[in-house]
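Two folds, back to back.
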Amino acid sequence: MSGAQHPPSRTVEQEEVTLVPDRESYEPGDTAQILVQSPFSPAEGLLTVSRNGFLYTTRFQVENGSTTLSIPIKEEFIPNLNIQVDLVGAADRTDDAGNVLKNAAQRSAYATASLSLKIPPIQRELTVNVTPEVTRLEPGGKT
């Protein structure tokens, strides 16, 4: 049909969560503090922690746009730990220009992000000292 308007989209667009770790790397015994910044609030969250497979999940709430998650770092997590945050909630409806529609019902919203936490194998490093049997060796000589 020529000139007709398209019906409004009923799809829910995936939004992006911002994850900010408190450090660049961790050691066993540390507790990682991850700042979670949500594109909508309030939100219900699910933290998934994995390393070579699923380890555990934890539910959490986001109020006022952000929250901080604490993740204990264990030796078996070396050399890295993967986290994923999934959020669901509701957000204001906007027009095509991005202006909030005052009297419209909120829309469903979801967002996700993932992050890899580095845990260098410092405790597993091996120090090797090499000393020659003789300090000087002539061509054809044996040690």
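---
second:
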Amino acid sequence: MPSYGMGQAAELLGVSPDTVRRWTDAGRLPTVRSRGGHRR
């Protein structure tokens, strides 16, 4: 499964990056953390 940054995912879904962050925090979208702590 490919991984996307927050901005890329937001663009693909047609929403803002803040919306994608809220969805990941709520568990609606799966995320993986990079070594630096960034969500993917």
